[in-house]
Amino acid sequence: xxxxxxxxxxxxxxxxxxxxxxxxxxxxxxxxxxxxxxxxxxxxxxxxxxxxxxxxxxxxxxxxxxxxxxxxxxxxxxxxxxxxxxxxxxxxxxxxxxxxxxxxxxxxxxxxxxxxxxxxxxxxxxxxxxxxxxxxxxxxxxxxxxxxxxxxxxxxxxxxxxxxxxxxxxxxxxxxxxxxxxxxxxxxxxxxxxxxxxxxxxxxxxxxxxxxxxxxxxxxxxxxxxxxxxxxxxxxxxxxxxxxxxxxxxxxxxxxxxxxxxxxxxxxxxxxxxxxxxxxxxxxxxxxxxxxxxxxxxxxxxxxxxxxxxxxxxxxxxxxxxxxxxxxxxxxxxxxxxxxxxxxxxxxxxxxxxxxxxxxxxxxxxxxxxxxxxxxxxxxxxxxxxxxxxxxxxxxxxxxxxxxxxxxxxxxxxxxxxxxxxxxxx
Length: 426
Hints:
Elements: H1 13-33, H2 46-57, H3 67-70, H4 73-88, H5 90-100, H6 107-116, H7 125-155, H8 159-171, H9 196-210, H10 213-222, H11 231-254, H12 261-273, H13 290-302, H14 315-329, E1 336-337, E2 340-341, H15 344-372, H16 376-387, H17 402-417, H18 419-425
Antiparallel strand pairs: 1-2
């Protein structure tokens, strides 16, 4: 009688990424529920702990409790670790521990690492992962050192923790701040609107974290020889520059007119950079013009770049859709960039991801607006912030009911794991 063998079914790399993020979120929520995670020594309700954990792992920054005044030093440390894991990616962190323990990375694990950081090939993935981890910690350390004099000048020895927390939060595009007090909750970086050291450092950390690990590798390998960069890196850098400069010019002329020139320039640039999934703000967002809020909503939906610490629809998705539209207008069969044809499957993937994000953004906004009785525009700003994993808010997040919080949790999770990851994991 022939022997029947049962092949062990393995989870795909995309399912591992989806489940890995979910597992870390739930574990983080359970830890944050513990009494010693809060300054008051009370058990935090599960839905609030889950919201905070999701926001941290998905590097968003939306909060229902002020991070600086509600969470204890232990709770803030847990949040920072969740941000770091979420920024690097669950798979990258797992691979790091495997490498540190001296274990050999299997071909299946290498394939999962490739999908997690959007690498073009499996070859050299371990070297690339080492480069990512070392680069991450080095950049975060530099950011911390630059901000140290300012924070230590304001908070004394506590300024060391402040500098470290905000450096990691900025590089990972998380947007969490611990500057709030019982008397002044949810301040973000509004107290530093005119401080060049904090503004420029945070902006650079956000940009470097958001352009993607492969783009770093290109810059590190090819230095200033732009022509030698991968096509993806070229698209990312050009698109990122446009999405920073154009909105900044608009904000400069339409907002912040009451500020001195230097502060006005800093505020315009900062509010242009931060919607790209960072979540910090130095200006009063509700006071900005309606057109500026609309632009920020679109920027939040776009998000960062593939294989980065950022979430959102991605800069490459936007670029591919725009180039495809141009090709239709010019009656060409295929879209082109840098003299190279864009594959039809890339255009289809970009369209699928864009439709998914816009549906999540719009449906979520309508449901929250109906449930809370709030203006639709305000709720759409909130859902764009969640699905783009940004963290900016017009001040409604802490007042939302449990249903609306759960909707934002789902949007943050879906926004972080990525559209294509979800599609392929299904």
